[in-house]
């Protein structure tokens, strides 16, 4: 059966939430959905440095249960529903050095941010999606779920692996009821934060920024494409996955890593 899609303004009438949407990849995803016609809500601890009147901002700490509940309540009170949830917030602040330097707080805080925050948001928004028989949930994971860097980000890699497993399980439950659940696993993304880290490494070690970038790529085992991803490239994938063009896609993990993962 043939089905036609309007690629222009294809998300018109949809309401979307992007967590961690004030900078980096989250900012690019929010802009991509906005460009497609969606009403876009973003959330983070702090307001964006440059305000965008077309985006609706909610300040919240999603690593805490109260912050998650606040976002769910405000979105549903103000907009009445949510059609698209992009669980983008995540990151690692644990010290390098392997398992011996990590304490309970390192593990707990990492899992709160990278696993439990998405779980809570899904739990908050899924009932109204299921009641309407329609919705899309995207979990932004990481290739570290399959390619962990034990010396630097052990808890982060473990949390993202759990997120991928949870996402697949959730899809099996809710896809028959009309809600699509997908995972996007990026490799290294050259956000402003990553660029700042490269500058710090270069200054600390006395090497050029280009050499610092090469060192990081080598620590990943190499990136066949030859460079990190740009945030806009990840956003374009997400924009497609939440669109009507991807209606038959659910329960799948999409890797966008320039070929970094060395296996099929």
UniProtKB/TrEMBL annotation:
PROSITE patterns: ADH_SHORT. InterPro entries: NAD(P)-bd_dom_sf, Sc_DH/Rdtase_CS, SDR, SDR_fam. It holds the Pfam family adh_short_C2. One of its GO terms (biological process) is monocarboxylic acid metabolic process. Belongs to the short-chain dehydrogenases/reductases (SDR) family. This is NAD(P)-dependent dehydrogenase, short-chain alcohol dehydrogenase family.
């Amino acid at each position: 059966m043939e089905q036609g899609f309007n690629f222009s303004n294809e998300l018109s009438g949809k309401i979307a939430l992007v967590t961690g949407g004030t900078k980096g990849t989250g900012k690019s995803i929010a802009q991509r959905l906005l460009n497609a016609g969606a009403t876009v809500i973003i959330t983070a601890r702090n307001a964006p440095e440059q305000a965008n009147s077309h985006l609706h901002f909610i300040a919240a700490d999603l690593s805490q249960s109260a912050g998650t509940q606040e976002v769910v309540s405000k979105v549903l009170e103000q907009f009445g529903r949510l059609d698209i949830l992009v669980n983008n917030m995540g990151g690692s602040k644990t010290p390098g050095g392997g398992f011996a330097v990590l304490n309970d707080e390192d593990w707990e805080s990492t899992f709160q941010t990278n696993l439990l925050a998405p779980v809570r948001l899904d739990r908050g928004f899924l009932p109204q999606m299921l009641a309407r028989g329609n919705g899309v949930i995207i979990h932004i994971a990481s290739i570290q779920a399959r390619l962990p860097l034990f010396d630097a980000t052990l808890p982060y890699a473990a949390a993202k692996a759990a997120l991928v497993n949870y996402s697949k399980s959730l899809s099996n439950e809710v896809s028959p009821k009309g809600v699509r659940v997908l995972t996007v696993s990026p490799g290294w993304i050259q956000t402003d934060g990553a660029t700042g880290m490269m500058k710090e490494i270069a200054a600390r070690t006395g090497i050029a920024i280009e050499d610092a970038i090469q060192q990081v790529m080598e620590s990943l085992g190499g990136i066949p494409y030859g460079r990190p991803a740009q945030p806009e490239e990840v956003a374009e994938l997400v924009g497609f996955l939440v669109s009507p063009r991807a209606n038959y896609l659910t329960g799948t993990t999409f890797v966008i890593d320039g070929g970094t993962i060395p296996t099929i």
